[in-house]
């Protein structure tokens, strides 16, 4: 079970997030703090596996608390929960596991808990990618990218929540991300194998479904796509 601390200077926000976390079977104790000072006191008592931190708090901010956590010998996982994205870059420089925007959706929170659980089980921290959107620099997790679409010398990264244009050709990403489970299905598409839900040989050509999107598979790439999907099939013992 994951014991968590919820920190926000607004009590209704604390109670709402604590309620959502309490509904998750992976969560154990849910502690609460409405100030940075209270949070530091709770952290000093130990036995906290993860902290869900608001950034904008008077006196001791969420970034201050995360900095103190980063200097500890056995730091809990940190998830920032905030109303804006202005501090995303600073958050991930402090090794935050995730960055949630208010109002927090239950399904998005569940993904954060899953990431914390993976880290507790010895999994590696996900690679972060810096992207720019609307004049804002954001950090996204590579394992949130479901597929990539070529757009000239650029590539558009698609996630469940949004899409981001980066100035990297698709061919370069194909080489750089091959070991992370991304495969080329078409001259215009690179897909994350773990997000593939089905493949179908349709009348208008083979297609693969990735996070609800139907994407074409070229004849050239069909054999490798079949091979990769076949490798994930569960077989009985001989």
UniProtKB/TrEMBL annotation:
<feature type="domain" description="HTH LytTR-type">
    <location>
        <begin position="129"/>
        <end position="231"/>
    </location>
</feature>
<protein>
    <submittedName>
        <fullName>DNA-binding response regulator</fullName>
    </submittedName>
</protein>
<feature type="modified residue" description="4-aspartylphosphate">
    <location>
        <position position="54"/>
    </location>
</feature>
<dbReference type="GO" id="GO:0003677">
    <property type="term" value="F:DNA binding"/>
</dbReference>
<dbReference type="InterPro" id="IPR011006">
    <property type="entry name" value="CheY-like_superfamily"/>
</dbReference>
<feature type="domain" description="Response regulatory">
    <location>
        <begin position="3"/>
        <end position="117"/>
    </location>
</feature>
<dbReference type="Pfam" id="PF04397">
    <property type="entry name" value="LytTR"/>
</dbReference>
<dbReference type="InterPro" id="IPR046947">
    <property type="entry name" value="LytR-like"/>
</dbReference>
<keyword id="KW-0238">DNA-binding</keyword>
<dbReference type="Pfam" id="PF00072">
    <property type="entry name" value="Response_reg"/>
</dbReference>
<dbReference type="InterPro" id="IPR001789">
    <property type="entry name" value="Sig_transdc_resp-reg_receiver"/>
</dbReference>
<keyword id="KW-0597">Phosphoprotein</keyword>
<dbReference type="InterPro" id="IPR007492">
    <property type="entry name" value="LytTR_DNA-bd_dom"/>
</dbReference>
